[in-house]
Amino acid sequence: MPRLRFQRLKAALVGAPLPTSAHDEERLNNAEALAILSSDALSSVAYATQEIVLVLGMAGAAGLAYTLPITGLIVALMVIVAISYRQTIRAYPQGGGSYRVSHDNLGDLTGLVAGAALSIDYVLTVAVSTAAGIAALTSYFPSLEPWRIPLCLVALGLLMLANLRGLRSSAQLLSLPTYVFMVAVFALVIGGLIRLAHGDLQTLQANQQNLLMAATHHVPVEQLGAALTPVLLMRAFSSGCAALTGIEAISDSVLAFRPTEWRNARRVLTVMVVTLALMFTGISVLAHQVGAVYVENGPTLLYQLGQAVFGNGVLLLVLQLATLLILLLAANTAYADFPRLANFLAQDGYLPRQLTSLGDRLVFSNGILALSGFSALLLVVFNGSVSRLIPLYAVGVFLSFTLSQAGMVVHWWRQRGSAWLSKAAINGVGAVVTAVVTGVLLFSKFTHGAWLVVVAIPLLVSLYLAIKRHYQTVSKRLRLAADKRLSLPPAPEQGGVPVVVLVGQLHRGSFEAVRYARTIAKELVAVHVDLGLGKAEAFREQWQLQLPEIPLVMLESPYRSLIDPVLEFVRAFEIEHKKDRDTFCTVVLPVFVTRHRWENILHNQSTISLRSALRAQGTRVVTTVGFYL
Description:
Elements: H1 2-14, H2 30-37, H3 39-43, H4 48-56, H5 60-64, H6 67-91, H7 98-106, H8 108-140, H9 148-164, H10 167-198, H11 205-215, H12 230-240, H13 249-252, H14 261-290, H15 301-310, H16 314-347, H17 365-381, H18 386-389, H19 395-415, H20 420-445, H21 450-478, E1 497-502, H22 508-520, E2 521-530, H23 536-546, E3 552-556, H24 563-576, E4 586-593, H25 606-617, E5 621-628
Parallel strand pairs: 1-2, 1-4, 2-3, 4-5
Helix pairs in contact: 2-10, 2-14, 4-12, 6-12, 6-14, 6-20, 7-8, 7-19, 8-9, 8-16, 8-17, 8-19, 8-21, 9-16, 9-17, 10-14, 10-15, 10-16, 12-20, 14-15, 15-16, 16-17, 19-20, 24-25
């Protein structure tokens, strides 16, 4: 059977389904959480200094002198944002991402802006991290450069499969490269500074001259000082702010930690920021001291430093492979957070409800697939270039930072608890600083690609609102009086057949299916599948109140599958009534009929898959009762 073959292939790729009861076992300990949720922030040291140097190099040696001051400003900003998010984690122990904080405290529209900005950032995180990882590989193996896009897509596919296997599986698989990268970078920085102190590390002056000439289209180096302007400095600062991407990931994923969740999340956030600041500062100091520069599509800055400190031996290979792996794993932060954000938006009715469904491995599989698709599109459109993607990066991050911190100020003001004024002041400072940085990012990067983000955010918000309006319209059409007993037509006096009617919710659509089933049924039973969402008892009570004369069977589904429990029940039901050869059991399925075909993506329409599975099983009469939306 095609369905059985598909299930076997799926199990081989992503693993056997996990029961809902195993959800708590999928939590992360602090070491695993640092590797999974911090990989985006920690990996940014592989390109943050590089992007600062790329911009400053346009102004020659005079511009490169500003590498360390800009690094210092970014580290100070990093500390401010981290302190602010420590407060957010404590205030929102269920997960306090920018969307939830802004939505709760600043209103629906502001929350949607934050959600749109974060959605764009997560897609860009995957694209930038994948492109940067492959750039590390092609720096060491230049012959692979023509295969950059296919390599990016293969790496993206492997990441998708790893995350579809589940949080614990990906943590066990992906933790080691993060720690190897941290050790390699600290070895590079400490080793480089020791060699500099002993005077046995050669600077890269000749390489600097050649690369500066390439960066400025062969304008003589001595003429480049005039190009140093405040705008250029702002561009360099905004490019380096990519180092802050991923800091919010921990506040978004508090529930991924083991108890006590918020306390462990704060600890991991602190360790992450301290480690990130040390690595970022160390690389900038080392790059400044040895005179390293970078041009687009040339050897990466980290590769140049590794070659200068380690030579062309095994340590350089380890550094490059570790960089490749952590940059690919940095995308894992987005894979951890984007599906949760999509779930929050879908729960509130702003995205298709399929995004709220847990897959076989207790992850939001539909969100993972959507993120992979959008990221692959970006990699193809921008030719897998980090420097072309970076201008789109960070704008959404800092906009979401600003809205989140402003929302926290309102949160403390409303609560007026102990020390609320000092807490509000901390978040207020964070909001003001990140708002200023957002303005700098927009001003300095607008013509270099940031305008795309400015256009995309309103378009996404408009899409969210359109989806919400559709669901509101559908809800009005389906609504039944919840406190009244519903009247049914009489059952046939003679004849009739055994009928099973599937009901997910009690609304006009399912009620019409029950009414039809009643008119043809000699024996009628309603079936509801409990998917473990905690709504089964409320549904039972509503059914007993409104349709007490129709027997209701509740089927438990520990693996969250709708199809398998129904197939098993129908098979047993047919065997029970098989003694009468002239009687055919009938299965009645309610189905929505949308006004426009594209609206089908907003509805699960699982009855279509169930109908195919029933017919494949051999059920001879399967009837759908359409309800026109």
